[in-house]
Amino acid sequence: MRKLLLTVLVCACMAVFSGCQTVQDKAPVSSGNTETMGNDGRPLAEPEPMKANDETRGNSGRSLAQPKPVDAGYEIMGDNGAPMEDAELMGSNAPVMGGNKKPLPKHMAKRADSDTGKIAVLILTGAGGHAWEEAVPTLQAILQQTGRFEVDRIDGPERSGNAGEISPEWLKWQPPPFSDYDVVISHYEEQWPDAVAESLVEFVRAGGGIVSIHQQISAVPNRDLIGIAWAESSTGYKLHVNDDTGEVVYLPPHHGPGPGHGRQHEFLVKTRQPDHPVMKGLPKEWLHGKDELYHGFRGPAGNLTVLATAFSDTAQWGTGFHEPVVWTVDFGEGRAFLTVLGHRFWSGYEYDPSHGIIDPGENGTDALYCVGFQTIFARGTEWAATGKVTIPIPKEFPTEAKTSLVEPGKMSWERKNSYDR
Questions:
Q1: Would you give the DSSP letter of residue 206?
Q2: The pTM is what?
Q3: pLDDT digits (tens), the chain, 421 positions
Q4: Is the CB of residue 339 less than 8 Å from the CB of residue 380?
Q5: Alpha helix locations (H) across 27-167?
Q6: 3-class DSSP state for residue 223?
Q7: Going by fewer Cβ within 10 Å, which terminus of the chain is more open, N or C?
Q8: 324 and 306 Cβ atoms separated by less than 8 Å
Q9: Has residue 224 been placed in a domain?
Q10: Domain membership of residue 143 as a residue range
Q11: Which residues contact 71 (CB under 8 A, 6 or more apart)?
Q12: Which are the contacts of 195, defined by CB distance < 8 A and separation ≥ 6?
């Protein structure tokens, strides 16, 4: 009986094994041209093996070239692996300013649209080492002489008191509402109280204009408003223009020179955006009066347009780059106009107002009296306020070979009875 049961059990196991083998034999055998099916039942194409010289490609299908390391000569490479001087660095590749991403408040009323048709300007000044007491009346005279502006001025307090503590006047300082004006000229070379700084940012974001010159640019309390400023080389992008291609080159932090300037001298200003309203009709190049040529400005550089440059000659202790000297920044619904031109005496030097400047290296009024500076300052202020320019180019405008210095009250601005806004 045991033998019979053992025989039956062995036969059953053999039958099961035979059945399993039969199922395996009937399964399809994968061949070289068999397609692998995806979850949707569609075939998944097998990728071809990558060859040694194949390029890695991004999601757009474009080749992703590997950037080269920075060598001892500091050749700065762009994301596409080409030297930054040769890369396409304008447009969508330029940094985008974060300030535009906040909600925009309601647009304020424009006084320029009033019956007078004049642009309401507030000059904010009162502190700093660049002889603001002498410079600001000159800036006022330039604007008023054009017949296009109504100019108010307020002198803010210095931040530090006699003993070095924060001044109580500074803490409670509150200028008039910026929304009463079309454009604010920031000539306040001092730290701003937080509340005043926030008011300025919202004013521009809502459609107001801001203008600043020379070292006062770096005191504007929001770097997104001005794009670039006097800042350490570890901060933001350093800009210059490739003179051959006209493209703006963005050097990353820790690359390129830090901020500074060489000796004061006359230098050529080169127009880079001839169709921009501020620059339209100006010569391609013109000789600016004796001034400090700043270099190495850095910052977020978002929504920034370089309108003009000047070559920073190494013979004048410069960088060898075509440095931005006039630029604009779009911020929210507002506009900023900036120029590093316009030095007016540094108070660290010995100075006697009754006898002029003692230090022969100082430029006196040359930079501010230069007709080129006066023209772009006035036209830039109008553009920041309205987005358009109607102020004409004076007949005394400098040429490529000769600068032109005229006291602002004696300029021959061609006044118009009405302005196209």
A1: T
A2: 0.71
A3: 444 444 444 444 444 444 434 333 333 333 334 343 443 444 433 333 333 333 333 333 333 232 222 222 223 333 333 333 332 333 333 444 333 333 333 444 455 555 568 999 999 987 766 666 778 899 999 999 999 999 999 988 888 766 667 888 888 888 999 999 999 999 887 888 899 999 999 999 999 999 998 888 888 888 999 999 988 888 899 999 999 999 999 999 999 998 888 888 899 999 999 999 999 999 999 999 999 999 999 999 999 999 999 999 999 999 999 999 999 999 999 999 999 998 876 544 444 444 444 455 555 788 999 999 999 999 999 999 999 999 999 999 999 999 999 999 888 886 433 333 2
A4: yes
A5: 132-146
A6: helix
A7: N
A8: yes
A9: yes
A10: 98-410
A11: none
A12: 174
Cα–Cα distance for residue pair 397/392, rounded to 1 Å? 11
- In whole angstroms, what is the distance from residue 122 CA to residue 385 CA? 11
Whether 302 and 99 have beta carbons less than 8 Å apart is answered as yes
Per the structure, how many domains does the chain have?
A: 1
Residue 45 lies in a domain: no
Which H/E stretch holds residue 326? strand 322-331
Residues counted in the chain: 421
| Residue that is written with structure tokens 């300052």 in the block | 377
Asked if residue 9 is part of any domain, the answer here is no
Please classify residue 266 by burial: count the beta carbons closer than 10 Å to its beta carbon, then call 0-12 exposed, 13-18 middle and 19+ buried: middle
* Sole residue written with tokens 């358009």: 388
Residue 15 in 3-state DSSP? Answer: helix
Pairing of strands 183-186, 237-241: unpaired
